[in-house]
Amino acid sequence: MNRLSRSALAQLPQGVAPGYDPAAHGVGILHLGAGAFHRAHQAAITDTALAASGGDWRIAGVSLRSADLAKALAPQDGLFTLIERGAEGDRARVIGAIDRVIAARGAPEAVLGPMADPAIRIVTLTVTEKAYGIDRSGPDADPAHPDVAADLDSPTAPRGVLGLLVEGLRRRRAAGHVPFTVLCCDNLPENGAMLRGGVLGFARRIDPGLADWIAAEVAFPSSMVDRITPAATDATLTLAARLTGVEDAAAIETEPFCQWVIEDRFAQGRPDWAAGGAIFVDDVAPYERMKLRMLNGAHSLIAYAGFIAGHALVRGAMADPALSVLARRHIAAAAATLDPLPGIDLDAYGDELAARFANPAIAHETYQIAMDGSQKLPQRIFAPACDAQRAGQDLRPFAFATAAWARYCMGRCEAGAHYALRDPREAEIAAVVEAAGGDAQALVVGLLRLPGLTPEALLGGTFEAQAARILRDMLARGMVAAIAGEAV
Whole-model pTM above 0.85? Predict the structure, then answer.
């Protein structure tokens, strides 16, 4: 069987190949964090945009940590198979939007060179919440973040996100080029403004004049992204070969649903992303809150409670009647904290979320979703809990999710097996767990008081007391019984 490449496109079944000649389009986007989600989401939508309207908008992807994807895509001319998996079956298409993937680890010039090239008009990012090094209270750069600290010491040879963006923009300014637009696509609240604050904070520390130029000249539109994309497995590659007739070392799978809401502020144009279903708005924040609270919040609940209850996959957790009830309760509680959104029926959106979580074709691991909890809970759980408290609404759904996270933070299954938290604050969390010694009240109080984690309004009152009582029940009876008791 031949390997996927430009020369193999003619062998593909009808409708599978890109609807345009990839080689005929130049690169106009640099993307930091070219993982599975980016390839299933922004790259796929850009692929549709190119087929509809053309333009020099192909993508140079950047892998910040590993060279594996760059090695897999190089022999394939950047091509890969995207498999959409739903209850109605599987559909494969080959994406041609990515020109190449750059392995950036230890090679900053490989990234900074394209950033300085005026042909690059947009830099997009999906690097996960923890990678930015942003102090969200500002927002500002966080000098305690390892990448930020290293890049402040060596700003012309950066390794981290803020350092790369600032040095790339510095080079554009020095050469007299128009700056690129910076488009964040990660699950951060008001992610454009958040990233702008981090970039400006970094720049001010090394060159106040550069910071002033960035503040005046560089656009940081916010965006909201949504598409459930599990990690690829050997079964994914086997399925891709069966559906396309060629081998693909970089195939990925995803759900049919895809959403992208973007603030339409681009200094040098953009692809026809609307052709791929993107929605352009003046203010993305209400859509962002909807997704973070309803989808991501319920996902976190399912991940922590489901993992400890023995459910390896989200679909398995949703097949548990009691946990499914709690997921739907959480979605409804999150929806109650939101203002009406024009064109969106929140009840219908909640029903759609439950159906997506239960999709039998998507093997999304609870352990994958559970990582980086300290970075995710503030916007997914604590922010809606604060609004619910102000409105006199029920806090228990958010307290249950918090208790499930605290139970997960203990780092051991109920049978005694240990697992890594995979959280940037893992050492701090472990110290709290050890000091608590299995006492539910002490554990909840200690975790919620990690510096900068929990809003003051949630400390010392009903929310904290509920979370401690729920955790005590989880420890005494086990997670399965606690879930069943809560769902009654």
Answer: yes
Instruction: Tell me the mean pLDDT in the region 441-452.
Output: 97
Q: Are 414 and 437 in contact (CB under 8 A)?
A: no
Cβ atoms of 311 and 343 closer than 8 Å = no
Instruction: Give which of 33, 154, 8, 6 is closest to 104, Cα–Cα.
Output: 33
Tens-digit pLDDT profile for residues 228-277: 999 999 999 999 999 999 999 999 999 999 999 999 999 999 999 999 99
Above 90 in pLDDT, residue 88?
Answer: no
Question: How many residues does this entry show for the chain?
Answer: 488
- Conformational region of residue 147, where left means phi above 0, alpha means psi within -120 to 50, and beta covers everything else: alpha
The pLDDT, as a whole number, for residue 343 is: 82
Report the SS3 class of residue 110: helix
Cα atoms in the 13 Å half-sphere on the side-chain side of 234 = 0
How many CA atoms does the CB half-sphere of 299 hold within 13 Å?
A: 28
483 contacts 321 by C-beta, under 8 angstroms: no
The answer, yes or no, to whether residue 370 has pLDDT greater than 90, is: yes
Angle at 215 (CA atoms; ends 213, 218), nearest 5 degrees: 85
CA 426/CA 444 separation, integer angstroms: 15
- For 6, the token pair is 């430009």
Q: How many alpha carbons fall within 13 Å on the CB side of residue 265?
A: 16
